[in-house]
Structures are given as C-alpha cells and as structure tokens.
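Project standup — Tuesday

K.O.: blocked on the structure for the chain from last sprint. Re-posting the sequence here as requested.
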Amino acid sequence: MTPLPPLIRRQGMTLVTIVKNYGTADEERVETEAQLLNSNEAYFALEDPLYEGDHVEMPDPRGGTILKVAAEIEQNPMPASMKASFGRSNGYAKVKWGQAQPVRQAPVRRLNLELLHSEVISSASTLFADGQYDSAITEAMKSVEVRVRRLTGLELSGAPLMQEAFKPQGFKLDVGVEEGRSGEDERDGFFHLFRGAMVGIRNPKAHELAHGDDPNEALETLALASLLHRRLDIAESRLSR
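H.V.: unblocked you, prediction finished:
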C-alpha cells in the first residue's frame, strides 16, 4: 500500500484498525496507519479501504482503545507531476469523525432448523440431518397435507384438498389475520400458497427420483412448510372456540 506523503508522516503516525460491517457476522478488520490530527480529524492514505460509515479503532490516550466512525471523507489525490517529490504517494484522505450509531441487528440473523414449526421438526429434521433433503421436503409437505385433512375431515389429498379447504368463497379453514378487504386478499394469497405447495413441491418430490443436494434450498422449502403450519395453528385455534 502506498504510504501517506512524507510531510504528513513526519508529524507522527498511529497504528489503527479499520472495522467494516462493525458488529455483524460479516465484520472485517484492516490494520493501517493514520495521522490523528485531533479528536475530530485524521489523515489516511488515499488507498486505505475506508469509507463513510466505517468504524475505526484507535488507541485511547487514557489507556485501552476508542472507536470512532468516519462521517466525512475528503479525498486529496496527488498530481502525477508531484508524486516523485512526495515519496511516490498517491495522496491522502482527510477524515472527519462522527458519532458511532448503535449497531442494529435483526432478532433472527440466520435461518436454522431449530426455529421452524414443531411439526416440521418432528417430520423432517432427522432426514435433513442425514442429508436426505428431498425426503425431508416431502415429509414436511406431507405433514401439512395430513394436518389439513385432519382439521377439515375431507377425504381428499394434494391440490384438491387445498382447493376445498382454503377456497376464498366457502373456506373451511380460516388462516387470515387481517380484517376487511386486506383479510380477503390475505386468505386468497394463502389459498394459492397451500395449493401451490402441493402442486409445485409436494407432488413432484413424491413422484420423481431424489436429486436435491442443496441444503440451503431445502431449508428454505422447510421454512415454507413451517409458515403453512403456523397459519394452520391460527385456523385450528378458531375451530376450537
């Protein structure tokens, strides 16, 4: 990495750490040197991977370290005709510090099997752990089908079962949570989700040779089955009233 111009370096350099994606699973740390002008500003080499919003960890004169955030970065490229006179430096970036914002983290940062509905875990978790992803998906969707049949008493299966159970006009299971027109749209949407899960996932997996080898895609499909079960929880609670 090309250093800061000698004129700046002579004023004294401090070892600091640029922290990108601070506080997240993707956090990256890059050590570099900077001239700390005062409590509000600093000089960095133009090539340093520092951008507005990045955090910088630096020594605290009182001991330990402090963390600051780059609020403004002013780039000052060195003219080509002057590079030889300034140690081949490409220039410098003047950084103004701002206040570090609290790290915002989603309550659930990664999808995992243990967070899915208990019906999916009981029907598919062992198969998923054994790498039998197609079978895990089939059993998870079958658990949805079996539960709908049990709740409705219908002697149907697959798409015809979902058609009768969730058809917008005359549904037997109410999986909506919204009121009025929004509720009607919601029920219509879940009608297509339940029916589509049987047509697009359950039936093909049951009648074709297993070939799924992507655990991420399998887990996402199990998450769909989990969502359908959670809506069936709502419908079942209404049936028991």
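K.O.: great, moving the ticket to review. The beta strands are 14-20, 28-36, 41-45, 55-59, 65-77, 91-98. The helical segments are 6-9, 118-129, 133-152, 158-166, 180-207, 215-239.
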